[in-house]
Design goal:
The structure holds 2 protein chains of 2 kinds. Chain A is of the alpha/beta class. Chain A has 11 helices and 14 strands. In chain A, helix 3 packs across helix 4. Chain B starts with a helix and ends with a helix. The chains are: A alpha/beta, B mainly alpha.
């Protein structure tokens, strides 16, 4: 449904988006995750036809967003970072205007408006002027605007900003429900949001894609280089040697703890649980074992690791 | 058909904006109060002047010329920049430009839709002044020729249209409404007075400047003459600035950081 090939956007010497490629299947929810200024908004603006790319192509529902822009834009609903609202309009007349510029015929507009108001749960504000609405309501009117014409592709730039926790849950629920019939890209810097709503995640940093996978895979991939935490009362050197000899063990980090105890973190191969093996070996040596557990990695860790590793990398190279 | 539909959508939204917000009411009210006041002043002056004049003096024509010509053009110069300054500057500031530009509509539809809406507001503003013209007709003898009225109103529409086209271009250049308004006023005034000082010279430069001045063709209209060169001048002025506005809106895609 969405095909992005080698997309690059440069503002003079600054490259905001750097050779980004990905694709989104029909009915999928793709999350854009990255720190502020990573290039999320720029990428979305290119996908919606607001900005031209410096090089590379993007296709929406088979139409090139640059060469066949009007046809591509017909299939897009877009909520920019700041909802594009006309304060002097009522919610209903605003949505009616949006439907008109999206070329929806008159006989369908009423039903679409009612449907969008229902989905975003703002039916009670239908005749209210937009300028009189609270921030949370405005955000939801913006959301209604993005889906009112029932587009194939919905692109949401930080859709839950400005909402209270209850509304955030509602919006996530709404996005989940939209998937399947709509293809959705959303950006956020809130990690749980991604793991809760998205089928796949693109982690983007400094204009480049740092990782792209399902939230589960991303978590297990690193959890995959599973780490095991061991605390025992043992002499440091033999303890380290023993741990290093465990099949599949990688790096062993040792740090002395109080009372003559030692703690170690062992990286092991993915998919193999060696905790019982470690326990057996340690006990065999007669060292008292105090703690043994797998260290779980959250999306937050992955995110930090991917984005800071990169920073260190570029710092080292520059 | 589809293109007209999106153009109409923009037009309809703009008209709604004018009449939901106080903009239209304030501008129309101020225009009508001022034109009413000046009509009385002109009427008195011309009635008084006509007493000492020989019998050939055409008071009604003089009155209409002063009213449709001098007065309207000056009021337009002050009022219309305040209407046009928000056309695009406000959309850019509010971020709604992003909605328009990611919707399946052409820049031309946006620009022409907005232009026509401003022109309609302008026409609505002029409409009540027909009452004065009718008044002159009912109470003067001999009456002024009708062509002065028709040509005069056509002239003011073309003159106002040019001002609106220039104003929409200025508004597309900046996010700041005040800047857009002041630029429109200033540039239009320069185009108005461009031949000052060369009015009586027969040189090519003088004649060229005379042709370029945005007010001279309008004066022909208020004499009851629909001159092709005036029509061509105003229509090309309008088309030129609408074209520039479309290009300017399109270039936002490249400029926006």
């Amino acid at each position: 449904m969405i095909e992005v090939q080698d997309l690059t956007k440069a503002y003079g010497p600054v490259t905001a988006v750097d050779h980004v490629s990905f694709s989104v299947n029909e009915g999928e929810i793709l999350g854009f995750l990255g720190p502020n200024g990573a290039g999320k908004t720029t990428t979305m603006r290119i996908l919606t036809g607001y900005l031209p790319a410096t090089s590379g192509t993007a296709k929406i529902a088979g139409f090139d967003i640059h060469t066949d822009s009007l046809a591509a834009r017909r299939h897009i609903g877009y909520l920019p970072e700041a909802p594009p609202l006309y304060p002097d309009m009522s919610v209903e007349s605003y949505l009616d205007f949006v439907l008109r510029i999206k070329n929806i015929p008159a006989d369908k507009r009423r039903a679409r408006i009612t449907d969008a108001l229902e989905k975003t749960n703002i039916g009670d504000k239908r005749h209210e002027l937009i300028k009189r609405l609270s921030r949370g309501y405005k955000q939801r009117v913006g959301l209604a605007q993005a889906l009112v014409h029932d587009p194939l592709v919905i692109i949401l730039d930080e859709p839950t900003v400005g909402l209270d926790p209850k509304q955030i849950i509602e919006v996530r629920h709404l996005i989940k429900n939209l998937a399947g019939t709509h293809t959705i890209i959303l950006s956020t810097h809130i990690l749980p949001e991604v793991s809760m709503t998205c089928d796949r995640v693109v982690i983007i940093n400094k204009g480049k894609i740092a990782a792209i996978d399902t939230p589960q895979n991303l978590t297990t991939q690193l959890k995959g280089a599973q780490r095991i935490f061991v605390e025992a009362q043992a002499p440091e050197k033999p303890f380290q040697e023993l741990l290093a000899l465990i099949p599949g063990a990688g790096r062993v980090e040792l740090s002395p703890a109080h009372n003559g105890r030692v703690t170690a973190t062992v990286e092991t191969a993915p998919g193999k649980d060696v905790r019982s093996l470690i326990a057996a070996k340690v006990v065999e040596k007669g060292w008292p074992l105090y703690e043994l557990r797998g260290v779980s990695v959250s999306l937050e860790d992955i995110f930090l690791q991917l984005t800071t590793e990169d920073a260190e990398h570029s710092q080292a190279s520059s | 058909m589809e293109m007209l539909r999106s153009l109409y959508a923009v037009y309809r939204k703009e008209m709604g904006h004018y009449f939901v917000s106080p903009v239209a009411y304030v501008v129309v009210a101020i225009f009508l109060i001022l034109s009413g006041l000046f009509f009385i002043v002109y009427l008195r002056e011309i009635v008084q002047a006509s007493f000492g004049m020989p019998s050939g003096f055409d008071g009604p024509s003089q009155l209409l010329r002063a009213f449709l010509g001098n007065l309207f053009s000056i009021l337009m110069l002050f009022l219309m920049p305040m209407v046009t300054m928000s056309l695009f500057a406000e959309e850019r500031k509010r971020g709604t430009m992003e909605l328009l530009m990611t919707s399946p509509i052409r820049e031309t539809d946006i620009v022409v839709g907005k232009f026509l809406a401003s022109l309609t507001l302008f026409a609505i503003m002029l409409l009540p002044t027909a009452a004065y013209v009718v008044f002159v007709y009912l109470h003067s003898d001999p009456t002024a020729p009708l062509r002065i009225v028709f040509a005069g109103y056509l002239g003011i529409l073309l003159f106002g249209g040019s001002l609106i086209a220039l104003g929409s271009f200025m508004s597309s250049l900046t996010e700041n409404q005040i800047v857009a308004g002041v630029l429109t006023f200033g540039i239009f005034l320069v185009l108005w007075a461009i031949d000052f000082g060369t009015q009586n010279t027969e040189s090519v430069v003088g004649q060229t400047l005379h042709y370029l001045s945005v007010i001279n063709h309008y004066e022909d209209f208020t004499r009851g003459i629909i001159d092709t060169s005036g029509l061509v001048y105003y229509l090309s002025f309008i088309v030129f600035f609408i074209f520039l506005t479309v290009r300017s809106i399109d270039s936002l895609r490249w400029r926006r950081a």
